[in-house]
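Long-time lurker. I teach an intro course on protein structure, and each term I like to show students one example going from raw sequence to a predicted 3D structure in token notation. This year I'd like something fresh instead of my usual example. Would anyone be willing to generate the tokens for the chain below so I can use it in lecture? Attribution to the forum is fine with me.
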Amino acid sequence: MAEQEIISAVVCVPTFRRPDWLTKTLASLAEQQAGFGYAIVVVDNDGHEPKGAEAARAFFSKQNIPHAIFIEEKQGNCHAINRAFGEALTTFPDARHFLMIDDDEVAHPDWLREMVGLAEAKGADVVGGPVFRQFEGEAPEGVRKHQLFISINGPTRQIDQLHGSGNCLIRRAVFDRLGAPFFDLKFNFLGGGDLEFFTRCRKAGFTTWWCAEARVNEFVPADRLTARFLMTRSIRTGSINYLVDRKNGLPAPAALLKNAVSLGLSVGRSLTVLVRTGHPVPASHPFLVSLGRFYAALGFLPAPYKASRKP
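-- Reply from a regular --
Happy to contribute to a lecture. Here you go:
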């Protein structure tokens, strides 16, 4: 770890087999015009061949930024995220705000200042910001407008809750109250641990704000624009939604009723999307989300974050 200064915020970056993208992410964090002390925590989730940690060490060797780098041997995104937040809380005990950005994203230069500034001004417990996609492959306009690529939009305001952790800030008090593990390990290989965490934040009464000015860009490779990938992810979204409902107290009979209602409404919703986009892939999203809820109810869960030991 680099020599410490007074740290107000810590940016956490979990990473897995993306050393080149990670370097771009770290470069954007090094260019932040924050106006206060901040640190960066990197957690590489590839214990077998931690190239992300190597890339981070090489990057920080040329920077004067407080930082810490860890390798999380237990594979899965919840393990990596929990380790990142846990180490950040311990390593920088004076920090009040803990942010997260994915290893395929870059932050605009004023991102950190905007996120922390809003949290301080509004006393927000959680803050989120927009993620703008940069597509690296060719795809029809309808696919680029797929629901999976759309985040919350609109002006800065208080909102109900966040749905993803790719651009977020969490106040220390939230972690202190909810306790570890922060992201439920049931979502470790499925994904959706962030949605479940922010659902608990809402139910616990924590306030959430949306910061329209705190922008990050996400790189979307060509293989994430295929019909197979998007349709599979739609099903997974439904499975996540079902498990979040059950985890947060919705009884099984009510959850099954919700599944049935969702399926009935999905046909009309899919037709509406088809008319709007003219493309069957985004139009399939509402129906496949409903289908994913039934898959989860039957115990069939995908595991996209469970990788082979070797790349």
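Some talking points for your students: The first strand starts at residue 9 and ends at 15. The mean pLDDT is 94.
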